[in-house]
Amino acid sequence: MPTGGIIILRVVAGSAKGLKLQTLEGAGTRPTTDRVKENLFNILAPYIENSKVLDLFAGSGSLGIEALSRGAESAVFSDQNEKCIQIIEKNLEHTKMTEKAGVFLGEAALILKKLSQHGQKFDIIFLDPPYKKGIIPQILQHLEEYGVLDEKFIIIAETDISDELPESTGCMVTSKVQVYGSTKLTFYKRN
Question: How far apart are CA 122 and CA 13, in angstroms?
């Protein structure tokens, strides 16, 4: 698997349907496949319109851009890899979504704290960190602790099928788990 090579994803549906997105290959990035993305957004369809989206561990920004393409009001993208941030910015420009987006370079917990200080709240949160690192339970706590969750929120955690996630934590509870090959999507809602 070559590192630093560029592979191409596409926007599956909505105003930017069919547009290609750049992403880094290797070096720890693992883009969500079109199949998983299509199934994910079929589940999210009732929640997308006019939502405020947070794409943590955004990589290429593919999930947040898909949400914007399908009618989300705004999206915030965060990643701690500077090359990923550059690709997100290029992808937003290419899909003409820059006006609806904020892009932040930094560690997820620090970005959540900063968003909290600016009073930002989100309806849909994508968590797609590196697999098998045990990052998600702590991030779920930070999402609640920093008060960035809207009254009706949905969190989607993408992990390896073997990753263990809590059934519930604080104000949230697992509402659905979907498995696609070796990828697991865990959905959290307010309990």
Answer: 22
Which are the contacts of 133, defined by CB distance < 8 A and separation ≥ 6? none
Q: What are phi and psi of 152, to 5 degrees?
A: -110, 105
In this predicted structure, the answer to whether residue 63 has a pLDDT above a threshold of 80 is: yes
List, for residues 97-133, the tens digit of each pLDDT value.
999 999 999 999 999 999 999 999 999 999 999 888 8
Predicted pLDDT at 49: 95
Instruction: Output the pLDDT for position 12.
Output: 82
pTM score > 0.85 for this model? yes
User: Would you list the DSSP string of the chain?
Assistant: --SS-EEEEE--SSTTTT-EEEEE-BTTB-PPPHHHHHHHHHHHHHHHTT-EEEEET-TT-HHHHHHHHTT-SEEEEEES-HHHHHHHHHHHHHTT-GGGEEEEES-HHHHHHHHHHTT--EEEEEE-PPTTS--HHHHHHHHHHTT-EEEEEEEEEEEETT----SEETTEEEEEEEEETTEEEEEEEE-
- Across the beta sheet with 149-160, the strand order is 101-105, 74-79, 52-56, 122-127, 149-160, 183-190, 172-180, 168-169
